[in-house]
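Dear U.,

For the methods section draft, I wanted the exact inputs and outputs in one place so we can describe them consistently. I've listed the two proteins in the order they'll appear in the manuscript figures. Please don't edit the token lines directly; just add comments below if something needs changing.

First protein:
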Amino acid sequence: MSNGNVKTNQDFDNLSKQIAKATPVGVKMNAYNPTNTAAASCPKTTAGKWEAVSDPLPPAANAQLCSCMMDTLSCVVADKTSEDDFGDMFGFICGLKGGEYCAGINKNATSSRSYGAYGMCSNKEQLSFAANAYAKAVSGGCNFKGKATTKAAVATPTASGCSSLLKAAGASGTGVVSGGATGSSSGSASSGNKTGAASALSAPVFNAGAISLGMYVVGAAVSGMAMILL
């Protein structure tokens, strides 16, 4: 703009010339007959090219399930704990016993292709689930240098739908829970989580790259094991 007047540059003139060459042709709605209506199929899994599969799918986001699960825990991440410390804690816990304590939050889409029922919960909820599993197996295990704390657990949460949701998820969190964020109480337990429902997932801020616990296991060898947490 110069002295209150807009002055176009050469790029504008070039674009105008190209637009002027366009000759769009409209079509009436009743004459529209698309031929490309076949749904696209997922690509086949091939080494080094495409590893994710369409079945099973990750669990649907379900805030009620996560809340119900948290009520049952007797060991949870302390409120004062920074997310900067989550990586070491995940690495230590998930690096033990082949990831046994983290089966309920598993998000491995390329190896075992199984998903934990709580893999869509928040970072803190997932870590609390893993810490609780570890604490139940190890005497005095709920410490983590003050980064975890004990609380009163509710054996059977009274909130509507919790009983069926938790039953479907299973004690280890490897079952399948149907229903989305509204917390539908319908669910079917299936060890290994062979099916899942696509939905808007609650993506945790802390992520291990290829959405698997493999990075956590590596972290255990590098830094997590240095945390003698008891």
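Second protein (the one for the lower panel):
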Amino acid sequence: MLLLGGAMTAASGLRAQQKAMPVVGLLAPNPKVFETLMVERDLAALGWQAEHNLRLLFMASAGTNEGLPALAADLIAQNVDLIIAPGDQAVIAAQRASAAIPIVGICDDMVGSHLVKSLARPGGNTTGISILASELDVKRLELLHELVPQAARIGILADPTTISARPQLEAAALALGIEVITTLAANPDEIGTALDDLASAGLGAVNVLASPILDNARAVIIDRLNRLHLPAIYQWPELAELGGLAGYGPRLAGVIREAMEIVNKILRGARPADIPVQQPTRFELVVNLKTAEALGLTVPQSILARADEVIE
């Protein structure tokens, strides 16, 4: 009995020790190491070293949303203390899995998608970053029209599982005197078909909207549109650095850093309901002149003058 009691005490002490190290899960449709390395780096800068005073569990569903509910349930079963969820569908899966475990989302429009009650008072167990995607999708359309003024028809590549900016884009297109053709892709298999549809639609340019699913296929999309000689603009400035013609919005690195600051606050005792949803305050325009030259496109001086970075 003494041995059993000692073993039980040791096991109890081990569980207490393990619980003293918070467990943070990352639930995403996007399995790119690029983002997970940023998460580790930014948490380390805030005093949270993986396997030292923090355990990180990365769960990704190979570029689709279908596996997210099962992965969320798996994270809950592993007693995570917090879930980081980039994208509407990841947040929804986490919320359905638990109404108590804190969730830090990185989404297009957390209020518009009904993921939180308001920016100032999110309520419940969810807060995070709302990246103003609908407004920025319209701004990107305007920039693309300025980049390629001869394009009378512009394609919109969108993910139907995210909040739709279609009404705003159609209103903006009407004001610009152009036509927009929307093509949808909700998973990797549909992206190829959507790109084929864009290729056959007689377009002058393409606006690739904000989406974790589309971002996961960034290399395929950039390469295919460049080979089709279709000028395109993307949601992250970094994508112009990876070969896209142009990118406009907040830097992905900055968004992740802000999200990790929220994670840090929660790990140190703050409640998600008391942490306002943050929005980016800095937006960058990056233009890739190498890509423009390959596309046979002359970038207007007005765009070059406004660009935060020009890749030559």
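Candidate sentences for the figure legend, describing the second protein: Confidence is low (pLDDT under 50) at residues 1-18. Residues 47 and 53 are 9 Å apart (CA to CA).

Thanks,
Y.
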